[in-house]
């Protein structure tokens, strides 16, 4: 009887075991990651080709360029039955008589820049805090790491946006009540 071999070395591809290939393979198996990559790719495409996609300059006022343009006019799409004598605006006109679609398309550049900048700062600060905490853990046996962990858990636990909103709301409400009472003569 011949011995049975479980693997053949002839067909083994060692390139497929690299870190990047394993990461891409794991990402491609998750549906939510694929959807996120498609959305991010679409946003990057729109941001790169904004000059070609947008029909108007986002800061250009359309009063002298088009006849009959009004503030905050509704969208007009010829394909969906808008009269041909009106100028086509896919998302309408804003209060300053500018094309909304052009502003949204060019706004994708700003959104991506803010997103990547925020993530970059988070990576830098997280790397510095993690490296410092890891180094100081071995140096001072957990005292500093415990403090860093408690602080980060506190930031995750307290919804700071809501807390700030409640605080500002109460301050504004108290100030408005005092101003109203002074105006009416009630102290």
Written description of the protein model:
With 187 residues, this protein is an all-alpha fold. The chain has a domain at 142-187. It contains six helices and no strands. It has helices at residues 19-29, 31-48, 50-53, 100-140, 143-157, 160-184. The mean pLDDT is 80.
Gyration radius (Cα, Å) is: 29 Å
Beta strand count: 0
Structural class, by secondary structure, is mainly alpha
Q: Spans with pLDDT under 50 lasting ≥5 residues?
A: none
Beta-strand content estimate: under 5%
Largest sheet: none
Look at the structure and give the mean pLDDT. 80
Helix fraction, binned, reads 55-70%
CA-to-CA gap between the ends? Answer: 105 Å
How would you spell out the order of helices and strands? HHHHHH
Shape: flat
Specify the number of helices: 6
Quick rundown:
With 187 residues, this protein is mostly helical. It contains 6 helices and no strands. The model has no long low-confidence stretch (mean pLDDT 80).
What keywords describe this structure?
single chain, mainly alpha, 187 residues
What order do the helices and strands come in, and which of them pair?
Layout: H1 19-29, H2 31-48, H3 50-53, H4 100-140, H5 143-157, H6 160-184
């Amino acid at each position: 009887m011949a011995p049975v071999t479980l693997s053949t070395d002839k067909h083994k591809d060692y390139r497929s075991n690299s870190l990047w290939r394993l990461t891409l393979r794991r990402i491609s198996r998750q549906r939510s990651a694929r959807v996120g990559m498609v959305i991010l790719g679409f946003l990057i495409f729109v941001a790169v080709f904004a000059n070609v996609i947008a029909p108007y300059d986002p800061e250009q006022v359309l009063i002298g360029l088009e006849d009959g343009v009004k503030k905050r006019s509704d969208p007009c799409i010829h394909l969906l039955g808008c009269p041909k004598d009106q100028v086509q605006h896919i998302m309408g006109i804003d209060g300053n008589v500018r094309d909304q679609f052009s502003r949204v398309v060019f706004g994708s550049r700003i959104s991506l820049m803010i997103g990547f900048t925020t993530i970059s700062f988070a990576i830098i600060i997280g790397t510095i805090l993690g490296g410092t905490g890891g180094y100081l853990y071995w140096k001072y046996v957990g005292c500093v790491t415990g403090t860093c962990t408690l602080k980060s858990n506190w930031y995750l636990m307290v919804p700071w946006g809501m807390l700030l909103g409640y605080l500002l709301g109460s301050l504004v409400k108290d100030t408005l009540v005092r101003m109203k009472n002074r105006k009416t003569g009630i102290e």
